[in-house]
Amino acid sequence: MIKLSARTRVSELMAGPPALYTTLKSTGLFRDGDDPEVMLGQLCWAFGFNPAILLMMLEGANVPEVVAPIDAAPFRAMPLGELVDHIESTHHAYLRAELPRLTASVDTLALEAGETESAIELRDEMRRMASELDAHIQHEEESLFAMVRDLAARSAIKPTRCGGTVGGPIACMENEHGATLRGLAKLRELTDSYSVTADASASRRETMAALERFDRDMQEHIFKENEVLFPRAMEAQRGQPQAASA
Ligand SMILES: [Fe+2]
Ligand SMILES: [Fe+2]
After folding, report:
1. Ligand sitting nearest the alpha carbon of 173
2. Rounded to 5 degrees, what angle do the CA atoms 64, 220, 165 make?
3. Ligand that lies nearest to the alpha carbon of residue 87, given by its number in the listed order
4. Each residue of 84-104: pLDDT tens digit?
5. pLDDT for 7-48, tens place per residue?
6. Can you tell me the mean pLDDT for 193-206?
7. CA 158 to ligand 1 center in whole angstroms
8. ∠ at Cα 194 (188, 196), nearest 5°?
9. d(Cα 69, Cα 144) in Å, to the nearest integer?
10. Whole-model pTM?
11. Ligand nearest to the CA of 176
12. Do the beta carbons of residue 82 and residue 231 sit within 8 Å?
């Protein structure tokens, strides 16, 4: 991940996660062969593009490269309605049960560690992620999943607060997934990838193991949504004219 601002040069951006450069090119502001020493702010100025919007788009792609955590084939073959049922009953149910336990365990660790700076940072990051994920899965179920179930039933999409097409909530969800992946990278950094010393307490061992499970589950969850569900929902909507005009 790199720090992005209007003063970031394209050459610096090219050294970051590959999705950053792909996203920049998708805007049409920069093409292969253009001067890579140009700053993002200069590009926006030249094209009359709002730099805040460009930075927001790039932040969504500013996440570490993750190796596919699972084999996507079974989820690509699953009927669309079953896929959202699976994500809800597996990953959303896991989060609803686990997030309160995990935040309580990390709170306890901070107290046990005498509230050191790194323990407080870990506690605050976990609390922030738990609160954002709670809202995220609720929003996902009420907007995107409801629309996908309409598509799966081959009926018109009932508009939600995110509009009447799947593109709106998908853009929003992808952005939030980017924030979650950055949060997971922060957890790994603060815990030295969930490692424990030989004399670590039982509660510390259990909490690190639980955090590692949470990290793995979250990566699988996001992979299924970003790489399988979202493209399939877009495809299903394209095949249903009555849904696209709803
Ligand atoms: Fe989800
Ligand atoms: Fe999600």
Report:
1. 2
2. 90
3. 1
4. 999 999 999 999 999 999 999
5. 999 999 888 877 788 788 878 899 888 999 999 999 999 988
6. 92
7. 20
8. 145
9. 23
10. 0.75
11. 2
12. no
